[in-house]
Amino acid sequence: MNFVAMDFETANGQRDSACSIALVVVRNDQIVDQFYTLIKPETYFSSRNSQIHGIYEEDVAQAPKFDQVWPHIAPFFTPQKLVVAHNATFDIGVLRSTLQHYDIPEPHYLALDTLTTSRRLYPQFENHKLNTLCTNLEIPLENHHNALADSIACAKILIKEAQEFGTDPLKQVTKIIG
C-alpha cells in the first residue's frame, strides 16, 4: 500500500490549536519518509493537553506557524493521495479548522481511519485505542502522544491490516475529504 499517516497534537481543546504535526510516507508497505515539526499556535496551551503530549508554550516559541508549514505538506493532500490517521475525525478536524483559521482552502484527498478499520477487523480487542492496538498487534509505540511516534504506529497498523486482511475491507471505509 501507498499512503501517508498523519497525526496532530493540539495546544488545547480547540481544533485550530495544532502544536505539532507528523506525516509518515509509506510506499509498497514500507515507511520511506517522515516529517515532523512543532507548530506555534495562535492560542493558549492548556495544562491538560501539555501533560498529555509534553509540549509547552516555550517549546514552540521559535516554531513556525501553520501557514508556514502548509506549503511543505500540501503536496500530500491531493485527490490521488490516501491520508491515514488513528481517530481521523480528530486529525481531519484539526487540519480543517487550522486551514480555515489561516484562510487556506481545504484540499481534496482520500482519508482512512485506523480506529474504524481496527473496530471492523479486530472486534475481539478490549478497545481500539492506539496504544492498545499496538500492544495487541505487537507494534512498538515508545512515545505515545508524540505526533511522529503515533504516525509511525498508525502506519504500521494499516500495513499489518492490509497484509492480514487485504485492501478490500479498507477500501470500503475510505472517505473523500474536501
Automatic annotation (TrEMBL):
This is DNA polymerase III polC-type. CDD domains: DNA_pol_III_epsilon_like (cd06130). The keyword Hydrolase applies. GO terms for cellular component: cytosol. It comes from Latilactobacillus sakei (Lactobacillus sakei). Keywords: DNA replication, DNA-directed DNA polymerase, Exonuclease, Hydrolase, Nuclease, Nucleotidyltransferase, Transferase. GO terms for biological process: DNA replication. InterPro entries: DnaQ, Ribonucl_H, RNaseH-like_sf, RNaseH_sf. GO terms for molecular function: 3'-5' exonuclease activity; DNA binding; DNA-directed DNA polymerase activity. Residues 2-167 form the Exonuclease domain. It holds the Pfam family RNase_T. It comes from the Bacteria. SMART domains: EXOIII. Gene3D superfamilies: Ribonuclease H-like superfamily/Ribonuclease H.
